[in-house]
Amino acid sequence: MSDVLERLARVLEARKNADPEKSYVASLHAKGLNKILEKVGEECTETLLAAKDAERSGESRDLVYETADLWFHSLVMLSHLGLGPDDVLAELDRRFDLSGLEEKASRTR
Ligand SMILES: N=c1c2ncn([C@@H]3O[C@H](COP(=O)(O)OP(=O)(O)OP(=O)(O)O)[C@@H](O)[C@H]3O)c2ncn1[C@@H]1O[C@H](COP(=O)(O)O)[C@@H](O)[C@H]1O
Q1: What is the pLDDT of residues 66-76, one digit of tens each?
Q2: Of all atoms in ligand 1, which is nearest to the CA of residue 35?
Q3: Where's it found, cell-wise (predicted)?
């Protein structure tokens, strides 16, 4: 799996102290949590609409694009609150371990 989340998280962290006139991420931090949540909500709605379109048309490019926007703005939200992708990945990892799926898969190999 790519390390893009880690690299992006480092950039987002650095943008907390950047000039809001020069950086989109810094401008979101400067506007505050409500603006960031508004963007997460917008991108969520756009993702749902793109998923319905993808089902109808069989074309998934817009869905991938909107999902990237949603993930990106979710990462900005986490960063604003002192969290990062590692926190979410650790939670997913914990749930995966709990499910025992990995162990079951290795038994059938
Ligand atoms: N991955 C992204 C990324 N994805 C989406 N966006 C921006 O998110 C916005 C999407 O919101 P909309 O589609 O609603 O566009 P908009 O109407 O311009 O937005 P608003 O005026 O409503 O806020 C656009 O301005 C996109 O440019 C991103 N902006 C930045 N990044 C990454 O963040 C890094 C830092 O960005 P800067 O802070 O701009 O340097 C970059 O190097 C990129 O890697």
Answers
A1: 999 999 999 99
A2: 23
A3: Cytoplasm
